[in-house]
């Protein structure tokens, strides 16, 4: 009887041990599956493409990017970024006390006015050419500082201007116009500016389309009051000097 009881106890212990082992094995499997899922998520984040609109502060890490006009040295640009977060009345004073270059001091003094002008007028620009016309007068580094201090939608537009729209060249230049029989004069600049505008806006993409566009627009003096120039003026209606 004692042998039978002992055997029965061993069997019960073995069964219970098996159950515990089974539970432990199941827990280990779940932990392993959790680790695999986390590993796949981490791998996905590593392989995820970078944002198409990097923060302009990333330009500090690129001293002379090939796609954007040259900037001040990285340390100077970083210092200007830090100064840009000071109150308006202190930026120029601190920049002057630090004996920064004259153009850096000027940017600190112009930053508030530039940001106000851009924030007020940029939403009125309906075409890329309107954006180019508005932002072209501003110093490139000043635009970077404005972008850093602006909300994402404005930063996105300024970034597109810096990296794409401002670098576009129209299919025809002044020599091409002379070859086509156009005589240099007051309207010559109007023609070139308009060719640039319709190129940026995607209306024309090559020389053939540019020539066809010129053929359709024969009265340039009248065209000076036309759609594209009006678009430029509309974008700058509320410009603050």
Number of beta-strand segments: 0
Work out the strand percent. under 5%
Apparent shape: flat
Portion in helices:
55-70%
Chain-averaged pLDDT: 74
Q: Any low-confidence stretches, pLDDT <50, length ≥5?
A: 1-22, 49-53, 59-67, 220-241
Oligomer: single chain
Number of helices: 12
Largest sheet: none
Determine the structural class based on helices, strands and strand pairing: mainly alpha
Termini separation: 108 Å
Along the chain, the helix and strand elements come as: HHHHHHHHHHHH
Radius of gyration: 32 Å
Structural features:
disordered C terminus
Could you characterize what this model shows?
The chain has 241 residues and is mainly α. It contains twelve helices and no strands. The protein has helices at 2-47, 74-84, 88-97, 102-121, 128-135, 140-149, 152-163, 174-179, 186-200, 207-216, 220-223, 227-235. α4 (102-121) crosses α6 (140-149), α5 packs across α12 (227-235) and α6 (140-149) packs antiparallel against α7. The longest helix has 46 residues, at 2-47. It is flat.
């Amino acid at each position: 009887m004692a042998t039978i009881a002992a055997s029965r106890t061993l069997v019960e212990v073995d069964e219970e041990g098996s159950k515990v082992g089974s539970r432990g094995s199941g827990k280990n499997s779940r932990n392993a599956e959790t680790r695999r899922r986390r590993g796949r998520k981490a791998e996905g984040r590593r392989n995820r493409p970078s944002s198409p609109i990097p923060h302009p502060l990333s330009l500090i890490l690129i001293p002379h990017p090939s796609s954007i006009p040259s900037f001040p040295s990285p340390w100077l640009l970083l210092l200007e970024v830090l100064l840009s977060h000071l109150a308006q009345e202190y930026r120029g004073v601190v920049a002057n006390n630090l004996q920064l270059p004259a153009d850096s001091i000027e940017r600190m003094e112009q930053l508030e006015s530039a940001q106000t002008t851009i924030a007020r007028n940029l939403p009125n620009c309906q075409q890329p050419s309107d954006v180019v016309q508005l932002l072209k007068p501003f110093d490139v580094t000043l635009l970077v500082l404005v972008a850093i201090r602006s909300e994402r939608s404005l930063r996105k537009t300024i970034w597109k201007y810096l990296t794409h729209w401002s670098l576009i060249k129209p299919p025809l230049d002044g020599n091409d116009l002379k070859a086509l029989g156009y005589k240099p004069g007051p309207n010559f600049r109007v023609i070139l500016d308009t060719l640039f505008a319709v190129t940026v806006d995607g209306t024309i993409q090559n020389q053939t389309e540019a020539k066809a566009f010129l053929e359709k627009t024969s009265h340039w003096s009248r065209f000076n009051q036309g759609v594209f120039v009006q678009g430029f003026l509309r974008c700058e209606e509320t410009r603050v000097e």
